[in-house]
Amino acid sequence: MRVSTECQFPHFRERFWAPACWAKLDEGGRPVSEDSGGGMETAFTRPAARAHRQNLKSLDLRSLPRDDGPPSELQIRREKFAYFEKRCSEVADGLFLGGEAVAKSREILRQSGITHVINCVGFIYPEYFKDELTYITLRLQDTPSEDISSVLYDAFDFFQDARSVGGKVFVHCSQGVSRSATLVIAFLMWKLDKPYDEVFAAVKAIRGVANPNIGFTCQLLQWHKRRHAEDFSRMYRIAPHSHADPLYLVPKLLSGRGRGCLDPRGSFVVHCDTALYVWWGSKCPPGFRVAAERAAEHLVRYEAAPQAIHVRHGEESPQFWEHILDPEATPDGVFENDSYTRDFEVYYNAAVSSSDPIHRGVVASAQHQIKEAAGCVSPGSPNQRSKKYRRSNEDPNEMGEGIPFAASGLKPIHTEVTTAAACNSPAAGGGESPPHTPPPRPPPRRLCLPHR
């Protein structure tokens, strides 16, 4: 087969190949060129041609025109994120949604009139303008397993407080897509009493990148269903929201009910269609009880629950046990739940270094319980009784336990000094007092060890 001597690609020849390569062909069909001496040699054996062939390695296809076709889904997504990156989207009156780029831009916040900010990613981004704006910081992970429903009502309180003073709230996470959008959608679902689909479509039309993850979506659907249920009985356990924020106590919905869900170390909220209870155990820290009372107030405010009934461990009524679907239970059947131990340990470790008096109160209580369990402290020991008696000498009308001294039937340890002894004392000028002879000490008693 012979190759035509005419070059079919002149531009390619001029740019990448030596002119000698397109000379005449020999009998074998290979291009040849004539040298100055008249002899024939193949073009591929010439050094100049071999060096010029190296230009093929620098072939740049970007200079060639091409038709890319329609943009891919990835390109559309990138362009959309770039468009909304620095936009402060107003999804409702006084309620804005955005990402971190807006949160750190004081100029954009000032143009939108922002006065309050909810930071959903406190473990990554700080409160950039905490001296000028009012902040609430949450530590939420953008994962389906994150419990975002337990912080909804705290965010609602923040929204309501800001709107009551004419403020504007900006809610942000990293990109204004999932976490912050979930809080905004939930608030609008409650405020407008609309289902998730309608509110999500309205928010999506304003901020095109809003898209809560599948876990947050399921939680909002279940939360909306719970709010409109008619016959129900639910229990909430007060626990740290996460190990990243152990002092932030929130109500966490329990899957079961009954005395097995209770724990004397904690506080619980029982919500039924006809009653609302706040229960706290005998070893419950003050912070847990305060968080339970706040959770009950949220249920009254946002779910139209009845006023809460406060119940202490050991004072439960039969109606209480019926509402937790365990009518035969008794206070003696409430024990420590091993599945809660990790949360209590995380909270205690954080409370030690806390400056909040509500959380600091748990430290002394926990230390006292540990000493009692170890046998180091006995409430009725002789040493403690003697301390109470000595304190009673300073105030004869009060004992350590609030019992009048005259009614106690006990004699004070420190008796008054007699007049004769006072006259014989050196301070009174009565000369030296006679040497004091201590009473003889009784012989030590032997301990009787029991026979094994």
UniProtKB/TrEMBL annotation:
Residue ranges constituting the Tyrosine specific protein phosphatases domain according to the UniProt record: 150-207
Gene3D superfamilies xref list: Protein tyrosine phosphatase superfamily, Severin
Ranges for domain Tyrosine-protein phosphatase: 87-229
Keyword annotations from UniProtKB, A to Z: Hydrolase, Protein phosphatase
GO MF terms, alphabetically ordered: phosphoprotein phosphatase activity
SMART domains according to UniProt: DSPc (SM00195), PTPc_motif (SM00404)
InterPro entries: ADF-H/Gelsolin-like_dom_sf, Dual-sp_phosphatase_cat-dom, Prot-tyrosine_phosphatase-like, Tyr_Pase_AS, Tyr_Pase_cat, Tyr_Pase_dom, TYR_PHOSPHATASE_DUAL_dom
A Pfam family recorded for this sequence: DSPc
Region (Disordered): 373-452
Name of the protein described by the UniProt record: Protein-tyrosine-phosphatase
